[in-house]
Design goal:
globular, 21 helices, about 475 residues, mainly alpha, membrane
Length: about 475
């Protein structure tokens, strides 16, 4: 089927909303299933699952983008949504298979990359930031609403009902792609044969990383991104589990926390970010955002009371201004015809962190013996947490969340590096020859606004998947 109407941003918006709304519903059942499946070394196993998934996504994203340049976007939208949502019904059938398939699904968990390319196919460059903003807002809406709905349904009707509903929404998304989404890649841009060659340079996940050291300014920016995003990627893979099992949040409170921080992040990235960029400039906005991130991670690390988590969550929302500002300063330091290259470098660094961060956090939790050996009965959570805090010989009485303090130290190093980033150096990047694809997977990254979308993707993907 050719789909309904002409290709539009609204087709992409519906696909994104349905996929991540389905996963958002599973936030509460997933946390319970994780603890029940891995009662020993829960944080370590959580980190390994998400680490494998993130690394596989990093390795496969360029290849899938290159193949979609040849074969079209619709088939790869169908492929990525199907395999990303395939683990959902396994939660009730076999939790072990559920987590195994989640880690392996990282090979296809790149729906955003294909969606970005889809939007780039059908928009002019001056329209692209607005289109990405619409996709971003839809993504945030699914994040704000679905965990709370899932927590309510789980409490009233049980986890089975939530899993069935999430599966039905995922199937609806697949049917929507099959029947309603038209192909965005023009027929003349596709080769006549499916055996046409692809650019393996374009499909190489390390290609953009190898260009990092060719310009000193971009090198400083990429080091800043790595040191600051590594703890953020790890944090979002384990933080909601940490709130639920260690701090003693109920499922409803975790859902409310996600909603509040999501809304505050949207406000920070729209209202606050615009004011700061105009008043103090790009570089100072980056430094301010990193400062908020250090405070947030330190508060998470030392905090042992629920109110501390809420206060740190507000700081986390403010720290979300960092990466849009980084994306803007990257764009300013690159020639117009090199925007895709430099944005691709930052995206590659962040993709690598999505694999390394969760594994690092899980390993640090394991080293400090932060385990979930208590019975996960809701009435005993507060009691167990308070008992651990009273015992002066327990590491958790001093540092409840050790990985967050490691993250704060990493962000402090990123601030020291960011201090050397020039505020205005003009377009000076010459990373060498780069084959531009007007309809390729890189074309989505020509807009500085891509950084805003990148900030939010791990939050939903890691916390819910």
């Amino acid at each position: 089927p050719q789909g309904i109407g002409e290709p539009s941003v609204y087709h992409a918006v519906v696909v994104i909303f349905l996929e991540f709304f389905a996963w958002g519903l599973l936030t509460t059942p997933m946390l319970a299933a994780l603890h029940q499946t891995f009662p020993q070394h829960t944080f370590l196993m959580n980190g390994l699952i998400h680490g494998v998934k993130g690394l596989l996504s990093f390795l496969s994203a360029p290849l899938i983008g290159a193949l979609s340049d040849v074969w079209g976007r619709k088939s790869f939208l169908l492929l990525t949504v199907f395999f990303t949502c395939a683990p959902i019904p396994l939660m009730q059938i076999s939790p072990w298979w559920y987590f195994a398939v989640i880690s392996m699904s990282g090979v296809f968990a790149v729906t955003f990359s294909v969606i970005f390319a889809y939007v780039a196919d059908i928009t002019q460059e001056h329209e692209r930031s607005t289109a990405y903003g619409l996709v971003s807002a839809t993504f945030a809406a699914s994040l704000v609403t679905s965990p709370a709905i899932g927590a309510y349904l789980s409490r009233e009707y049980g986890d089975t009902v939530v899993v069935i509903l999430a599966t039905a929404i995922a199937l609806l998304d697949i049917c929507f792609i099959l029947l309603a989404v038209p192909e965005s890649l023009p027929e003349k841009m596709r080769p006549a044969s499916w055996g046409a060659p692809i650019s393996w340079e374009q499909a190489d996940p390390f290609a953009s990383l190898r260009k990092v050291g060719q310009d000193s300014t971009v090198l400083l920016i990429c080091i800043t991104v790595f040191l600051s995003y590594l703890p953020e990627a790890g944090q979002y893979s384990s933080f909601f589990l940490y709130l639920r099992q260690v701090i003693g949040f109920t499922s409803e409170t975790v859902a409310a926390f996600i909603a509040v921080v999501g809304i505050l992040s949207i406000l920070a990235q729209t209202v606050v970010l615009g004011v700061l960029m105009r008043s103090i400039g790009n570089k100072n906005t980056i430094l301010l955002g990193l400062g908020f991130q250090i405070l947030q991670l330190a508060w998470y690390g030392f905090g042992s009371q629920p109110w501390m988590m809420w206060a740190a969550g507000a700081l986390a929302a403010m720290s979300s201004i960092t990466f849009p500002a980084i994306s803007a300063i990257v764009s300013r330091n690159a020639d117009p015809d090199q925007q895709g290259v430099v944005q691709g470098m930052v995206t590659g660094i962040r993709g690598l962190c999505n694999g390394l961060g969760p594994a690092l956090y899980g390993f640090v939790f394991y080293l400090f013996h932060v385990e979930l050996n208590e019975i996960d009965d809701r009435e005993n959570l507060d009691k167990a947490a308070k008992t651990n805090m009273v015992n002066p010989t327990d590491e958790r009485s001093i540092i409840p969340g050790p990985p967050f303090l490691f993250g704060a130290c990493s962000v402090l190093l990123s601030i020291l590096v960011a201090l050397f980033i020039p505020e205005h150096s003009g377009p000076n990047l010459r990373p060498g020859s780069y084959k531009k694809h007007s309809n390729g997977a890189q074309s989505h990254s020509h807009s500085p606004q891509m950084g805003i979308l990148d900030v939010k993707e791990p939050l939903l993907e890691d916390s819910n998947v």
